[in-house]
Amino acid sequence: MNRRNIRVSGPLTQAVLGAVALLVAAFLILPVLIIVPVSFTADSFLSFPPPGFSTQWYARVFSRADWLNSAWLSIWIAVVVTVVSTVLGTLGALGLVRGRFIGQRLLLAFIMSPLIVPGVIVAIAIYFFYARLKFVGSPLAIAVAHTTLAVPFVVVNVSAALHGFDRRLEMAAANLGAGRFATFFHVTLPIIRPGIAAGALFAFISSFDELIVAMFIAGPTQVTLPLRMWESMKSSLDPSIAAVSVLAIAISVALFLSSALLQRRARRRSGAASGDPQ
Amino acid sequence: MNRLLRDPAFLVLPLALFLLVFYLLPVVQMLLRSTGADWSFRPFVDAFSSEVTLKVFWLTARIAVIVTVLTLALAYPLAYFIATTGERTAMVLLALVLVPFWTSILIRSYAWMVLLGQNGVVNGFLRWTGVIDAPVRMLNTTFAVYVGMVHVLLPFMVLPILSSLKAIDGRLVAAAENLGAGPGAVFRHVIVPLSMPGVLAGSVLVFVLSLGFYITPALVGGPSDMTVSMLIAGEVDLYRWDVASAIATALLIVTLVTLALFGRVVSLERIFGGAR
Amino acid sequence: MGAGDIGTTRSRAGSPVRFAGVSKSFGSFVAVHPLVLDVKEGEFMSFLGPSGSGKTTTLMMLAGFEEPTDGRIYIGHQDITAVPPARRNVGMVFQSYALFPHMTVEQNIAFPLRMRGLSKAEQMREVGRVLEIVGLERFGRRFPGQLSGGQQQRVALARAIVFQPPVLLMDEPLSALDKYLRSHLQSEIRRIHRDLGITVVYVTHDQDEAMTMSDRICVMRDGRIAQVDAPEALYSRPQDEFVAGFLGESNMLDAVVAFSAERTLQLEIGGDRIVLPVARQPAGGQVRLSVRPEHVAFHPDPAGGATVADVTYVGDHRRYDLRLADGGMLIVKAQSTGAEPVPPGARVTVDWPAAQIRAFSEGTALQ
Ligand SMILES: Nc1ncnc2c1ncn2[C@@H]1O[C@H](COP(=O)(O)OP(=O)(O)OP(=O)(O)O)[C@@H](O)[C@H]1O
Ligand SMILES: [Mg+2]
């Protein structure tokens, strides 16, 4: 194996490097963490350090119908998006990885492009399109648009799982009497499931956090959570946004941890797969 | 027919159709809109005869370049340290990169509003230590835009670099050392060249994503820190949809040309492909 | 191991396999030339040949994973050329086992039974039966990742025989194992073959493995059959130079025809004359001879035409490199028990074993 370390520096350089790395990591994580104490401030506006601690802003958020409605709307949209994009994306990845056709690379680039194309461009294009269809303002419209943006995450994760998949397992299944559907459901699907789940998590998060498209096509009564946060951020530095943010971060971190677990499981699974006996 | 069904390629059809209708069609319509009613390209003329548009493109490009350079400077040491340190430390540091990656841009931008505001954490800390006596204006400045964008985009640079560093065969280092190369030489002649694919991939990605940035500059930038995306949104608000389309088309072309030139190196699977 | 009764309870467990002019091309490249081969029921047939000779391709066509470009394949009396793999009912052990990593050993072995709609109880009974055959009774609940290579191999074997297929295919099933495990599993596979009476088509690189296990060996070369024969016949009567050189160690020598008559060929090698009972050849022409090192003998002789160039002690025998009068080299294996070694430099006379020398002209054996 090539796992010999690529470290070249002596202990001193390594220590300096470690200090730099630590600073960069702190720069990454501290701003996210700082919201937590801020959200528990006893003050009526943002201040640091907080004069005292209270849970008033959380109580406030949970008592406000507009925040709760937005949260439910966002969750509802994200669930729809997750289901649709997981199905479409998994099938799509199977077709792209397993099939052979003309224009394959181009189609893949097209499917992946929402990850790269500036959000505003996608947002206004969809907005103009929906405006013509009088589709603007409905949660379904947002869900459809979000699916476009979420599907690449599924495709990329499922493709990765399929690339690591040992096709001989499918040959073995066929040899043992399994038809194409039985092979898929008993062998292929269980083995790529962690990849599908990781893609689904990404899809959920991407919709739950999406702001720009929602900004253009959400109606005045259908305000998603990020949109409501965005609007109150622009008007005030009300600490209730901090409370909402902490809740959203908690969801993200929970999903991140589950995705890390899934990845580990996926790795174990492909490691334990047939082949190289030690 | 049986042949056709045996080739799994047809499985991509539902997705392709979905994206065709709800993504490609809207974008194509927007592109057509930007050409004007009679292919006069009037919206382009309107958009780019304005000095503001040109200036905003220039500002956006400048921000993108500076952010890319800053991100690279911060990401490389972090990635290299993660690649060379013990497994446990590496896992913790990687988690510190990934948690922000999973937190929405909106919330991270908000965090910088909290940090950099007049009564924010940084000002509070500086005043408490006595470095300053009056709060310094940091929020709503170009400085805040750089800080916020670097923060948001850093993981996109760290991950590809880390993955190319991890792919380096450690025996190459041993071989170079054995051939008499000191640490500096090994780093310069072995590590840096072999990690170039990751550096390039990260840089292209960060540059392209910076070009389209909207939320962070809108929240933490000053009145003069306008990006192309903000300009487009502004034109839409003014119901100048044709002009907005023309500017968006121009931005799209810049993005695609950048990708066409350098995009080969970007492996999205490496960055977003969790389950490998 | 309690498996002795299986062969008696199941009569005619194996089916014959027939390749009737089966060929396979990939684009313009012909991987397998029209192949005609009959494997008898219950026979253990090995495919042996150098890398790229078309062994796997042939096996894959039999299993249904490659479609023949031409020709038909029969199992029993049924033409299975167009039957999909799932309905061919042939067991297969893959080179790297291809065990389902997400299923336990039991679930892996029960899989073909499940696909055939057997009840849970029947599944468990059959799984228990084959686990006993392969000696893994206590490992049913483990996952493949928790087994050693040899154990995984046995699970793969159990899974391939549990549905009692009439034909069992194995593609280099032991190549990933160490030498000790390999020979252990070889005898186990042979025992199972004997007990089940199943027809086995076995692909291997390893000629010793092919020799010890097979009823017949099909030697392949460049997509063609070079020779099909029982191991002994193959070893002692190779049909062509390739087979002679490929199987076991062989001295290949050039000889000149000195005199020829009906079934008498007098040849000159290295100053010696030998007579072989084979067909007439033009006098003065060249033939090639192959002779196994263990079939040649020699004795010290100050007037001998050959010299000992080197002696190596190899445990049960000594290996002599002799230089013949014409400069050609000859390898001889001699029993090392008792006798003193003949030292390098000594002059010797070679005792040519006419009965064991094969003569070839333009690659093919003279009869
Ligand atoms: N799918 C394919 N496309 C093109 N050529 C192929 C394909 N499969 C096999 N071949 C070629 O056919 C020839 C026979 O291959 P095959 O795998 O049957 O050899 P083999 O005897 O099993 O060799 P080995 O001992 O190395 O396993 C080889 O030259 C190989 O390159
Ligand atoms: Mg092979």
From TrEMBL, chain A:
PROSITE patterns in UniProt: ABC_TM1 (PS50928)
Transmembrane intervals: 12-40, 71-94, 106-130, 142-162, 239-262
SUPFAM superfamilies: MetI-like
Domain of life: Bacteria
All copies of domain ABC transmembrane type-1, residue ranges: 71-259
One GO biological process term: transmembrane transport
InterPro entries: MetI-like, MetI-like_sf
One cellular-component annotation, GO: plasma membrane
PANTHER family reported in the protein's UniProt record: INNER MEMBRANE ABC TRANSPORTER PERMEASE PROTEIN YDCV
Protein name: ABC transporter permease
Lineage: Bacteria, Pseudomonadati, Pseudomonadota, Alphaproteobacteria, Rhodobacterales
Automatic annotation (TrEMBL), chain B:
Cited InterPro entries: MetI-like, MetI-like_sf
Leader sequence segment: none
Membrane topology type: Multi-pass membrane protein
GO terms for biological process, alphabetical: transmembrane transport
Residue span, ABC transmembrane type-1 domain: 57-262
Keyword annotations of the record: Cell membrane, Membrane, Transmembrane, Transmembrane helix, Transport
Transmembrane regions: 57-83, 90-111, 143-162, 198-219, 239-262
Compartment annotation: Cell membrane
Domain of life: Bacteria
Major localisation: membrane
Gene Ontology terms: cellular component: plasma membrane
Family: Belongs to the binding-protein-dependent transport system permease family. CysTW subfamily.
Protein name per the record: ABC transporter permease
TrEMBL record, chain C:
SMART domains: AAA
Listed GO biological process terms: quaternary ammonium group transport
Highest taxon in the source lineage: Bacteria
Keywords assigned: ATP-binding, Cell membrane, Membrane, Nucleotide-binding, Translocase, Transport
InterPro entries, sorted: AAA+_ATPase (IPR003593), ABC_SmlMolc_Importer (IPR050093), ABC_transporter-like_ATP-bd (IPR003439), ABC_transporter-like_CS (IPR017871), Mo/tungstate-bd_C_term_dom (IPR008995), P-loop_NTPase (IPR027417), PotA-like (IPR005893), Transp-assoc_OB_typ2 (IPR013611)
EC class: translocase
Function: Part of the ABC transporter complex PotABCD involved in spermidine/putrescine import. Responsible for energy coupling to the transport system.
PANTHER family noted in UniProt: SPERMIDINE/PUTRESCINE IMPORT ATP-BINDING PROTEIN POTA, SPERMIDINE_PUTRESCINE IMPORT ATP-BINDING PROTEIN POTA
Subunit text: The complex is composed of two ATP-binding proteins (PotA), two transmembrane proteins (PotB and PotC) and a solute-binding protein (PotD).
Stated family: Belongs to the ABC transporter superfamily. Spermidine/putrescine importer (TC 3.A.1.11.1) family.
Protein name: Spermidine/putrescine import ATP-binding protein PotA
Source species of the chain: Paenirhodobacter populi
Lineage, opening ranks: Bacteria, Pseudomonadati, Pseudomonadota, Alphaproteobacteria, Rhodobacterales
Annotated gene: potA
